[in-house]
Amino acid sequence: MLDKPNKPEKQKFNVVGTSPLRPDGVDKVTGRARFGADMVAPGMLVGKILRSPHAHARIRSIDVSKAEALSGVKAVVTKDDFNADAEDQDVLYNIMAREKALYDGHAVAAVAAISQSVARRALALIEVDYEVLPHVTDVDEAMKPDAPVLHDHIFTEGVEPKPTKPSNIAQRYEFGHGDVEEGFSEADVIVERNFKTAATHQGYIEPHACLANIANDGSGELWCCTQGHYMVRNTCASLLGIDVSRLRVTASEIGGGFGGKTTVFIEPVAAALSRKAGRPVKVVMSRNEVFRASGPTSSTSSRIKIGAKKDGTITAAESELNYQGGAFAGAPADLGAMCSFACYVLKNVRTIGYDVVTNRPKQAAYRAPGAPMAAFSVESVVEELAGKIGMDPIEFRIKNAAREGEKSSYGPKFRQVGLVETLEEAKAHPHYSAPLGPNQGRGVSCGFWFNFGGQTSTSLSINIDGTVALAVGTPDIGGSRASMCLMAAEELGIGYEQVRAIIADTSSLGYNDVTDGSRVTFASGKATIMAARDSIGKLCERAAKMWDISPDAVVWEEGHAKPAGANAGEFEPLSLAEIAASAESTGGPIAGHHEVNASGAGTSFATHIVDSEVDPETGRVQVTRYTVIQDAGKAVHPAYVEGQFQGGAAQGIGWAINEEYIYGEDGRLQNAGFLDYRIPVASDLPMIDTKIVEVPNLGHPYGVRGVGETSIVPPLAAIANSVSAAAGVRLTELPMSPPRVLKAIDENK
Question: DSSP per residue over 597-622, as a string?
Fold first, then answer.
């Protein structure tokens, strides 16, 4: 029973599909919830990090003697205080510069002192001898043969023959099938365009913060705001050269992450300082440090070419996508290339992605990493192509849409998917046929994300009073604790309010992968369901003992153990609370567990409709109406699902219109703060309407698909399409700030 998922389309639910209050809500609105910077410890020191003022510089020497001699300084660390043989050399290099500083803000040393003021004075006393080197921050410039090379060990992978000279192109990826050249020869209309997107930050309100309390032997504890405390534990243990079992990591409440807290930046530094000082050390990034030294998205450039017949059939599609990933390899060029044409069934398709290093901070995920940029360029061309052949843009997409059983552009065949359903809902939505005003335009875009599974462990304990304690290992960044409680309650047949979920620390529960990839409601939910079923088996065994019958003669229905078969009607049903109260006499505590490397995560699709208004005199863009339609598989907590839809749209609006990293000629970031890096506020946003589509994912017992990432994939293109329609000219570079829009309008005249 545990290995075979139920048929989701036949499921009827009691609590799943409702929207109760979130369990952490009161603590957060009353200020009782503890975030990363809220943790304190007796004797705690302040940790601060010295960062490079240069985009690219060789470090000739570092003299920390004056800082160490300053009264109140308890520890100073440099690269020499970390395990040089750590498995992930890029992470090691990123948390503390070694031979070179590779970007403005790269950490070069750190201090622990008795106060903020002493720590700041100590940083000023550290003497670093830099040899400033040529730098490159633009992805296209970095790919040129004469560009300054960051690493002499990077030889482009994925090309034959292997290059003999190092370059900034770390890897080339290619996906596709068919004969693209032949496909283009069959097309009646071909559109080919180049696009650019700027790097953007996730914009979480809470900066990175952690508290480390490490003994001289390396054993100790870490508290931090993270999307994956098991990952933090493993990384810190590797960089400090100690056993994983010696570190206990607890995830605090998290004040936003969106993928930006799926890596480490300061935790190993705090741990090294604490070990050296013999006292707890807290490190909290300033907002300036967050922008200069923690991962934003990649900036990109791309070339898209799509051909179609007059009847709307796409005959060929080709994309070339360049992803700037900061100072270290690992930009999501492969994911972007795989996502670019995933919404469509294509006989002839080729996608190429390049992972490129530059003198910028290492990129990090920002929901659906790599996909929004690819969708921006592809969906812009799709919209333009539909216009050129005189076809409704939604009908054009429906004609070519990905369907069950069809081969995807990146290889596998699709299982049950809901793209067509989202498109049909979009076409029927009142928004799509609503009249537009002067200088207004409407745009549509589709979006795709894979959704992940991964390693997951969950434990469920039945308390003596019949309540349930649920321990999960995936930090809650979007309301997942409520969803876990709903699924546990559904299985057990009890009320939502009887279940309480916690995020267990790394020493209390088996390993869990990071909260990313829209995996938690799917994977942790799957593990929660199976842990509940495990406990149900034990509850039935206890009831059998109480009745002195065979466990096979007991069934679990509506929160009660009931006798079945020949014993049916002989005994009164026993509730969960009644069995729990008798646990001591029937065998002791009752608990359920499940560990899984979850597979079967269902792919996810969405369609967005956007109206924008452009001021032809200033180039200012205002989004006036927005509708999100997305397949959730099964919305466990519909209010949270809608919140994820709206959040992705809001972030997409900022990405498309305002947000960008701006570097000067010196390679230094010029807008490292919310004053100059402008994220949307309430007055910038329209009311965002939502429509939840439910096409069940057959890989999950309840049909769940992840929803957190797909919602940020369509906005860039949908907004660009609406702005292009309003301005009367195709916009190909993001953000569409007033100067860019006005320039495009003027050039079009």
Answer: EE--PPPEEEEEEEEEEE-TTT--EE
Please tell me the distance from the alpha carbon of residue 390 to that of residue 399, in angstroms, as a whole number: 14
Enumerate the CATH 3.30.365.10 domain ranges in the chain, comma separated.
299-451+602-748, 453-598
- The predicted model gives 578-605 an average pLDDT of 97
Q: For residue range 17-27, what is the model confidence (pLDDT) as tens digits?
A: 999 998 888 99
Decide if 423 contacts 394 (C-beta within 8 A). yes
Q: What distance in Å separates the CA atoms of residue 59 and residue 79, rounded to the nearest whole number?
A: 11
Question: Which residue type, as a one-letter code, is found at position 381?
Answer: V
CA dist 46 and 312 (Å) reads 63
In angstroms, rounded to a whole number, what is the distance separating the alpha carbons of residues 630 and 425?
A: 9
Alpha carbon 145 to chain centroid, angstroms:
33
Residue 217 binned pLDDT confidence (cut-offs 50, 70, 90)? confident
Q: Which two structure tokens, joined as six digits, stand for 419?
A: 């793209």
Give domain 299-451+602-748's CATH number out of 3.40.50.2000, 3.20.20.370, 3.20.20.80, 3.30.365.10.
3.30.365.10
Q: How far is CA 173 from CA 191, 316, 317, 332, in A?
A: 23, 19, 16, 10
Q: Taking the CA of residue 578 as centre, how many other CA atoms within 13 Å lie in the half-sphere pointing to its CB?
A: 12
Angstrom distance (rounded) from CA 288 to CA 399: 48
Fold of 44-133+208-284: Aldehyde Oxidoreductase; domain 3 (3.90.1170)
Whole-model pTM? 0.96
Residue type, 54: H
pLDDT of residue 749: 85
- Listed in sequence order, the DSSP H helices in 509-665 are 525-547, 576-581, 583-586, 638-657
β-strands 127-132, 57-63: how paired?
Answer: antiparallel
Return the structure tokens found at 437.
Answer: 């005003």
Give SS3 for 3. Answer: coil
End-to-end CA, the chain: 67
Q: What is residue 303's predicted lDDT score, i.e. its pLDDT? A: 98
Structural element, H or E, at residue 594? strand 590-598
Spatial separation of the C-alpha atoms in residues 300 and 281, rounded to whole Å: 38
- Residues pairing with 75 in the sheet: 112
Sheet hosting strand 247-251, strand order edge to edge: 73-77, 107-113, 45-51, 281-284, 209-214, 220-224, 247-251
Radius of gyration of the chain from its Cα atoms, rounded to whole angstroms: 27
Provide the H-helix boundaries in 134-179.
139-142
Q: Is the pLDDT of residue 74 over 80?
A: yes
CATH number of 453-598: 3.30.365.10
> How far apart (Å, rounded) are the C-alpha atoms in residues 363 and 373?
14
Q: How far is CA 437 from the centre of its chain?
A: 36
How many CA atoms within 13 Å lie on the side-chain side of 278? Answer: 2
Output the six-digit token pair for 404.
């069950």
Contact status, residue 40 vs residue 284, Cβ threshold 8 Å? no
- Cα→Cα distances 241→142, 267, 276, Å: 35, 14, 14
Q: Do the Cβ atoms of 602 and 697 come closer than 8 Å?
A: yes
Tokens of 175: 């996906």
- Check: CB of residue 619 under 8 Å from CB of residue 731: no
